[in-house]
Design brief:
Length: 281
């Protein structure tokens, strides 16, 4: 039966006001205090890591940081939410800003700046990252939310990008039926469109691999050549070796990144050693 204090009977108000509270005063190093907070926070709604850090490193810096990044009325939250997962109320925008500027060492950064009277560096770095992202990727996609933009900024912000070409590449990859991981599209492009593992490109299914293996093996058995095309043109002991199916991997004849489709006509079976050596060539 929830009630407002103002509407309660006088005797109930008095009971609340006269209730004695047991207070523990915590003394010790900041590390010890942090452990205290973790211990007494077991019950109820647990504090997350940033809320714990805010308590441990309380001071003018945290106060100013919360005013900027933990204010649900801040008009910038809509823009931030396009790139960052979280809630202002649970300190997740503040945590993200601190993570970016500190390169992941949030506690150390908060300790060093605990008594600062401004958050200029924090705000400037945070804005720099988001301005950089929005200048390269002019269309905002839902998969951009929650990516490691701070790390990507550090790795790539000194490179030059053509936003129009980047947009065309994003649209091309989004339309490609073989790309299974759209969240990896942005890092893939920033890295020069090299690391296809980021895209989780669809691989050949088992039926296709077995069919191609059978055809390759039948074709070479009477010719004393290896059923791995690259071993067959080599000069070592494997030149005539017939590999078992489990010893081989499916490979794109024409690399997917160079327009090769994940289709049986573009599939060949290579021994595992040659397939790994071939890479994306």
């Amino acid at each position: 039966m929830e009630q407002y204090y103002s509407g309660m009977a006088k005797d109930k108000k008095a009971k609340i006001l006269e209730t004695k509270l047991l207070i523990y005063e915590c003394e010790g190093t900041e590390s010890e205090i942090k452990e205290w907070f973790k211990t007494i926070n077991i019950a109820g709604v647990p504090l997350n890591n940033q809320e714990l850090l805010n308590a441990v490193y309380s001071g003018p810096f945290v106060t100013l940081g919360k005013e900027e990044f933990s204010n649900s009325q801040n008009s910038n939250i809509q823009k931030w939410s396009a790139y960052i997962k979280g809630s202002a109320n649970r300190q997740e925008f503040l945590e993200c800003a601190l993570d970016w500027v500190s390169k992941g060492n949030i506690g150390d950064y908060m300790s060093r700046h605990r008594f600062d009277k401004n958050i200029n560096e924090l705000k400037k770095y945070f804005d720099s990252v988001l301005d950089w992202v929005s200048s390269i990727f002019t269309d905002v996609e839902s998969e951009m939310r929650g990516l490691e933009w701070g790390r990507l900024y550090e790795e790539h912000h000194k490179k030059a990008y053509n936003p129009a070409k980047v947009l065309a590449e994003v649209q091309k990859l989004y339309a490609d039926p073989y790309v299974k991981n759209r969240k990896g599209v942005f890092e893939y492009i920033l890295g020069g469109s090299i690391d296809t593992k980021l895209l989780d490109v669809r691989v050949f299914d088992e039926a296709t691999k077995k069919s191609v293996y059978a055809a390759q093996t039948a074709k070479v058995k009477t010719k004393s050549k290896s059923n791995c095309p690259l071993c067959a043109i080599g000069h070592d002991a494997n030149k005539s070796k017939i590999w078992s199916f489990s010893e081989m991997d499916a490979d794109h004849v024409a690399a997917w990144s160079k327009g090769g489709a994940t289709a049986s006509k573009n599939c060949q079976m290579l021994c595992k050693t040659h397939n790994r050596a071939k890479g994306n060539r």
